[in-house]
């Protein structure tokens, strides 16, 4: 098992409501970040149709680490600006994968992603600063998606 941590931040011209809408719709992640999020199948929704559990397939390719992760994720949305995705753990798979999106509204919206994971990866595989790299890739992809939806 290896531990990964990462943080990334960007400021986007989109309103906080648009940012929250993009990030809470986890089944849309493969549309705006297909390089890493290969598939999301929503398994449960709450009364307001918000996804609360989803099976995800992530593809990580960074340096010598190339691996697909199949993760059952719990999704929690805390308006006005937090989306938390957490791997559902069990006795067979004690690994951890937590992503927290935080939004702060001002003239623009500040998007921050915090990633913390413990995943089954060989100790011999050097991973370097992969946590920050993954966080930055996610935030960059979300920023691009929001910029393409923002009217000029």
What distinguishing features does this structure have?
alpha+beta; 152 residues; single chain; Alpha-D-Glucose-1,6-Bisphosphate, Chain A, domain 4; seven-stranded antiparallel beta sheet; 22% helix
- Unreliable stretches, pLDDT < 50, 5 or more residues? none
End-to-end Cα distance, whole Å, is 46 Å
- By CATH reckoning, the class would read Alpha Beta
- The CATH superfamily label reads START domain
Commentary on this structure:
By secondary structure, the protein is α+β, with helices and mostly antiparallel strands. The chain has a single domain (2-149), classed as Alpha-D-Glucose-1,6-Bisphosphate, Chain A, domain 4 (2-Layer Sandwich), CATH 3.30.530. The protein contains three helices and seven strands, in the order E-H-H-E-E-E-E-E-E-H. It has helices spanning 16-24, 29-32, 130-149; strands at 2-12, 37-45, 51-62, 65-78, 82-87, 96-105, 109-119. The protein has a seven-stranded antiparallel β-sheet. The longest helix has 20 residues, at 130-149. It is globular, with a radius of gyration of 15 Å. The termini are far apart.
């Amino acid at each position: 098992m290896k531990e990964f941590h990462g943080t990334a931040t960007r400021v986007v011209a989109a309103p906080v409501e648009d940012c929250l809408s993009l990030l809470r719709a986890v089944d849309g992640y493969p549309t705006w970040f297909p390089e890493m999020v290969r598939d999301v199948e929503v398994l449960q929704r709450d009364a307001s149709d918000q996804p609360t559990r989803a099976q995800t397939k992530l593809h990580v390719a960074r340096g010598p680490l190339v691996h697909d992760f199949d993760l059952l994720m719990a999704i929690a949305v805390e308006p006005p600006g937090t989306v938390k995705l957490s791997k559902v753990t069990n006795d067979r798979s004690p690994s951890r994968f937590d992503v927290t999106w935080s939004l702060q509204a001002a003239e623009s919206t500040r998007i921050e992603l915090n990633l913390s994971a413990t995943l089954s990866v060989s100790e011999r595989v050097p991973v370097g600063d992969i946590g920050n790299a993954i966080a930055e890739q996610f935030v960059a992809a979300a920023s691009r998606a929001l910029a393409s939806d923002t009217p000029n």
